Amino acid sequence: MHRVAAVPGAERIEGLTEVAKSAGWWWPFKGAVILTERPTLLHRDAENRLHSEDGPALSYPDGWSIWAWHGVRVPQWAIEGPTAELIHAERNVEIRRCAIEKMGWDVYVVEAGLELSPPVADPGNPGQQLRLSQPLDLFGDRDALVRVLLCTNGTVERDGHRRSFGLTVPATIRTPIAAAAWGYDLTEKQYAQLARRT
Amino acid sequence: MRTLTQMIDRHGVDVLEHLDREQLVPVLDRLQAQGDIIVVPAVMANRPTAAAKTAVPAAGVAVVRGENGGNTHLLLAEGDVRWDAYTGTPGQLRLGTLTVADGATAYLAHPEHGYAGIAPGTYEIRRQREQADEIRLVQD
Hints:
The structure holds 2 protein chains of 2 kinds.
Chain A: H1 14-22, E1 26-29, E2 32-35, E3 41-42, E4 58-59, E5 65-69, E6 72-74, H2 76-80, H3 84-89, H4 93-103, H5 105-111, E7 120-121, E8 129-132, E9 146-152, E10 164-170, H6 176-182, H7 188-191, E11 196-197
Antiparallel strand pairs in A: 1-2, 3-4, 4-5, 5-6, 7-8, 8-9, 9-10
Chain B: E1 2-3, H1 4-11, E2 24-25, E3 27-28, E4 32-34, E5 37-41, E6 61-64, E7 73-78, E8 81-85, E9 94-100, E10 105-110, E11 114-118, E12 121-127, E13 129-131, E14 135-137
Parallel strand pairs in B: 3-11
Antiparallel strand pairs in B: 1-2, 4-5, 5-12, 6-7, 7-10, 8-9, 9-12, 10-11, 13-14
């Protein structure tokens, strides 16, 4: 047995130490204790939320697993096989959003067959373009349609690529620049003057 | 203008290793965006913007602080730079007012986006929003 040397009173927590070394969460009751195994796998994002982009975020030895996207618990398909069809059939809007993010907004708009505006130059982001989708019912409310603004990051990722992502804006907005401007409560004319984006 | 390496040496705020260390960090008095925040010159803000009063400490001040430091945009001062955080209604895009005195420079530092230099003037710094089932703030 491992002993904690020279700490007075440490022997009183030796039982807890032993349990912590060999079990996960446990709950004592009168006359019975529920013990769980420790997880065989545990993935988190930079902010310590449960997250895995290619499989379960948490698994136990008996195979029981959960899938999570930046702290949101999602079904297995959302991580391991998202499709536009599955996304549209999903009623929970948070799960829908996670599955689209996992798939990539640029891939989603193509798979969902959305019409896109012609690309326009992204102000302050040389060589990059903005596109705006047709209106769609992404959040289960036919009275609050949105459009997806497809953008590219101003800074390259670790792998040398630029991350492309989608931002949702009210469907009443008609142009990519106006959509980007709305995100910061600026006018289209003001946003067109953006000098630098990183 | 200084390079990213020179900025990191001077302020001690590091950025992700894959960013180009030799790139120059421009100092601008115009509209500029760093990830999910934007620096809006006072003349563009659609409300009267008084000069900020609170001096930015040597260690800088976080204009946005991500959980566990993940998405922190840190405001750094070289000279007389002042920042008054907006403490009104939560959920507003407005984060606060920045005033950079003549002869001074402010920088915004972020691990993923590097440094952005801000020339003398008064600005409003805003967050970005998007339309979900309700309007929400963007976290990149």
